Amino acid sequence: MIAVAASPVRLEASVDPRLSRWMWLVKWLLAIPHYIVLVFLWIAFTVVTVIAFFAILFTARYPRALFDFSVGVLRWNWRVGYYAHTALGTDRYPPFTLADVPDYPARFDVVYPERLSRGLVLVKWWLLAIPQYIVVAMFVGGDWGGDDWRGGGLLPFLSLVAVVILLFTARYPRHLFDFLIGLARWAARVTAYVTLLTDQYPPFRLDQGGQEPSPPSPAASPPADPLTKA
Question: For residue 215, which of 204, 207, 227 has the smallest C-alpha distance?
Fold first, then answer.
C-alpha cells in the first residue's frame, strides 16, 4: 500500500442526512448576501496576498494575522460554495464568519507554516503551478478563482447530476459525492499553493471522500529492520 502524506490543506464535508429534494433550486438565490460579502473579501484577500508576497520574500514568513485572514476567506468561500453550487450537500445556511465552525458540514483549514521559501515565492504561483492550472481548469472551468468555483468544467456538471438524482430519488449518490469532494479538494490545494499559504506542491492525486485521508500511523507501518520494532 502506498502511504499517503498528510496535506497541510484540509478540506472536508458531509452530506445532510435529510437533504431537501428541491431546495438546491433556490440556494444560489439565498446565497446572494454571501456573494456580496465575498466580493469585498476577495478584494482584501488579493491585497493581503501581495503584502504576504513581500513579507515572505524578505522574512521567509507569512504574517500570522494575514495568514489567518486569508485562510478565513477561503474557508468562507468553501462553505458558500458547498451550500450553493459545489456538491450542494447541505441545506444549512453558511455562517457569516471567517472562523472555523466545527459543527458546520463543510470545513477548510491550512496548517500555518513557520517558514516559507523565499525563492519559491517568486515562481510557484505562475511557473510551477502551470500543470496544476491545466488540470484544475478541466475540473472547474476557466473561472475557478474568487467567489465562484463553478465555471464550465466537470465539477459543476457532476454537481447538477447529483442534485437531479436527489430530486427524483430523495437520495444523494454517495460515490458521486466522494468524487465531487475529491475534485474540490484538489482545487483547494492548488488555490492554497498559488496564494502562497503553503510550499507543499499539490499532489497529482484525487483524494476522494468527505474526510481527508490520514497517513498511516508509525505503529501500523512495517518495521524497517526485522530486529527493530517500528
Answer: 207
d(CA 143, CA 219): 44
pLDDT score of 12? 98
Measured distance CA(47)–CA(37) in Å, rounded: 16
CA dist 45 and 221 (Å) reads 41
Residue reference for cell 479538494: 185
The H-assigned helical ranges of 9-91 are: 27-30, 32-59, 64-84
Give the DSSP H or E segment for 180: helix 174-194
Are 193 and 111 in contact, with CB atoms under 8 Å apart? no
pLDDT of residue 230: 35
**C-alpha–C-alpha distance, residues 186 and 205, integer Å:** 8
Walking along the chain (230 residues) 10 residues at a time, the average pLDDT comes out as 76 96 96 98 98 98 98 98 94 98 98 97 96 91 48 84 95 96 96 98 97 69 40
Number of H helices, E strands in the chain: 6, 2
Query: Between 174-194 and 64-84, two packed helices, what is the crossing angle to 10 degrees?
Result: 150
Q: What is the pLDDT of residue 138?
A: 87
> If we measure between CA atoms, which residue out of 187, 165, 190 comes closest to residue 81?
187
Rg over alpha carbons for the chain, rounded to the nearest Å, is 19
Amino acid, single-letter form, for residue 11: L
